[in-house]
């Protein structure tokens, strides 16, 4: 079982002792005591206090500044401290590859049988090739490491795949982690690829390396205790992706139906490169969001007819034969949310949508805009597409038989009463939450405003629309409905089941 290690980075011994108790209460398996973070550290006085009352097995690290730590002193003092930790019964000691031979000579090759030696190498610039990583692992093994630790940095999410390849072939226990937000996958999937341990922090203020998730996230969102070699990998590939609530919702649903998979946020730069790199059948399905929904059309081998008509994909399924099939659940999610938002008396003919005959202005001509424009047209609405790049608005409008405008034209566009506005741009989305596609003054032209942005739940657009007395529909409604469709494609679970689960967690 991959262990969950909680790094302790407090500035005082007292706070570090308290954090060790918090780590045990949170569900950690061991703690990493970062001695280099303690101000005024006095080894013979402080080490017994840290180790003898520690509620969990302990790993002691005294990281020098030249390896990314905060210790500025000489190696002899540091080595003496690590040897003292061994004598006091510590479970693990971490030493850097650069000085591992020197340290082994210092302790004359002797260490307590209980204590395991972790020999580590950190690369804060990039992730080397598979060949270079394998050679590095061999060098670490050769100095007598009980456990190999290699930490690199992801410039692109595809870099993580090289670490996975090396980990599964390592002949001794290995900790293989890729730092930065793009490397998060390496931390969550450590159990799948045989990692000896992974790190989870107590909270965002107590991090020891970039890209570390919290203990709570690893245990309660990603459920790493249940991840193993056969676990399927699902996820949302987007840029940005940190704001997404999809991992919370999908992982809760996966757990509820007992489906052996984990759903991850995947910060990508190039969709085609990502799909080509992670081509194993275990990487079985993906959600696509900004800016990849249109790119996904070219990446898929087959397309659902609706997705092909829209020209945008938000769901990719990898079949057992390796073929990628694209779907679009955005249009169902958005249109049904808008229809419910319109409310009012329904037609006696259930086939007639409350959108029929209405004028809807779609702001944005990207993937979400295409889905909403297509869906609205199918429901009998008259569609106007407004976009910052006018040529894209024209292209989409022509495809669905609508009218094109520049986004700036919305300030004065008022051909009739009772219009509906649907924002399908990223304006207002985290982290640029002050953005909006239209001024507050112009919002009074509309009867209803829908915003596909759901993080934050109440965007500036929706807040200002409400202040104008306009009916609003949050992007949360679209988010839930499109996710229900995705989950059915991912797992085959019936829509009704996920709807019930979604109601609990959103």
Description:
The strands form three sheets. The protein has an eight-stranded parallel sheet. Helix 5 crosses helix 6, helix 9 packs across helix 18 (475-491) and helix 13 packs across helix 14. The two termini are 32 Å apart. By secondary structure, it is an alpha/beta fold. It has helices at 13-26, 43-52, 75-87, 100-106, 130-142, 159-169, 184-188, 215-221, 246-257, 271-277, 295-299, 305-310, 330-342, 367-378, 390-400, 440-443, 460-467, 475-491, 495-505; strands at 3-8, 30-34, 58-61, 92-96, 116-122, 147-153, 174-179, 197-199, 232-238, 261-267, 283-288, 302-303, 315-318, 324-327, 359-363, 382-387, 403-406, 419-423, 446-451, 471-473. The chain is elongated, with a radius of gyration of 27 Å. The protein has 19 helices and 20 strands. Pfam families: DHquinase_I, Shikimate_DH, Shikimate_dh_N. InterPro entries: Aldolase_TIM, Aminoacid_DH-like_N_sf, DHquinase_I, NAD(P)-bd_dom_sf, Shikimate_DH-bd_N, Shikimate_DH_fam, Shikm_DH/Glu-tRNA_Rdtase. This is Shikimate dehydrogenase.
The low-confidence runs, each spanning 5 or more residues with pLDDT under 50, are none
Based on Cα principal axes, name the global outline.
elongated
Number of strands: 20
Provide the β-strand percentage band: 15-25%
- Total helical segments: 19
Please give the alpha-carbon distance between the first and last residues: 32 Å
Helix content: 25-40%
Q: Radius of gyration over alpha carbons?
A: 27 Å
Based on helices, strands and strand pairing, what is the structural class?
A: alpha/beta
Summarize the main sheet: 8 strands, parallel
Strand order of the biggest β-sheet? 7-6-5-4-3-2-1-8
Averaging pLDDT over every residue, what do you get?
95
């Amino acid at each position: 079982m991959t262990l969950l290690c909680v790094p302790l980075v407090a500035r005082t011994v007292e706070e570090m002792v308290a954090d060790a108790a918090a780590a045990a209460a949170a569900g950690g398996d061991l703690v990493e005591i970062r001695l280099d973070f303690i101000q005024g550290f006095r080894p013979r006085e402080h080490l017994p206090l840290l180790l003898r009352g520690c509620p969990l097995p302990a790993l002691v690290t005294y990281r020098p500044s030249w390896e990314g730590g905060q210790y500025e002193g000489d190696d002899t003092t540091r080595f003496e401290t690590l040897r003292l930790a061994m004598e006091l019964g510590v479970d693990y000691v971490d030493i850097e590859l650069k000085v591992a031979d020197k340290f082994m000579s210092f302790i004359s090759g002797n260490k307590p049988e209980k204590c395991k030696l972790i020999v580590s190498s950190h690369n804060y610039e990039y992730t080397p090739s598979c060949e270079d990583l394998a050679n590095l692992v061999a060098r670490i093994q050769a100095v007598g490491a009980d456990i190999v630790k290699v930490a690199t940095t992801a410039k692109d999410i595809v870099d993580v795949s090289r670490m996975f390849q090396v980990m599964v072939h390592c002949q001794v226990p290995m900790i293989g982690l890729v730092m930065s937000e793009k490397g998060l996958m390496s931390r969550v999937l450590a159990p799948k690829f045989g990692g000896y341990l992974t790190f989870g922090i107590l909270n965002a203020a107590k991090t020891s390396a970039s890209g570390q998730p919290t203990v709570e996230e690893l245990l309660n969102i990603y459920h790493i205790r249940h991840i193993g070699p056969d676990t399927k990998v699902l996820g949302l590939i987007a840029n940005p992706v940190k704001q997404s609530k999809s991992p919370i919702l999908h992982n809760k649903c996966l757990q509820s139906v007992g489906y052996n998979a984990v759903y991850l946020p995947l910060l990508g730069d190039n969709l085609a490169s990502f799909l080509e790199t992670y081509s194993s059948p275990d990487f079985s399905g993906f959600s696509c969001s900004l800016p990849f929904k249109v790119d996904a059309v070219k990446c898929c081998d087959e397309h659902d007819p609706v997705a092909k008509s829209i020209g945008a994909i938000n769901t990719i399924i990898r079949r057992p034969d390796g073929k990628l099939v694209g779907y679009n659940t955005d249009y169902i999610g958005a249109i049904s949310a808008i229809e419910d938002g319109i409310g009012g008396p329904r037609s006696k003919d259930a086939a007639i949508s409350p959108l029929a005959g209405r004028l809807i202005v779609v702001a944005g001509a990207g993937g979400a805009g295409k889905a909403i424009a297509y869906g609205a047209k199918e429901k009998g609405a008259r569609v106007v597409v407004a976009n910052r790049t006018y040529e894209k608005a024209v292209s989409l409008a022509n495809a669905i038989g609508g009218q094109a405008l520049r986004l700036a034209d919305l300030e004065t566009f008022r051909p009739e009463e009772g219009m509906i506005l649907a924002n399908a741009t990223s304006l207002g989305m985290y982290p640029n939450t002050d953005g909006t596609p239209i001024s507050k003054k112009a919002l009074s032209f509309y009867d209803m405003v829908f915003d596909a942005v759901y993080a934050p739940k109440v965007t500036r657009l929706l807040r200002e629309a409400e202040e104008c007395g306009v009916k609003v529909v949050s992007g949360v409604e679209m988010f839930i409905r499109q996710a229900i469709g995705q989950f059915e494609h991912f797992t085959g679970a019936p829509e009704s089941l996920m709807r019930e689960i979604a109601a609990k967690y959103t």
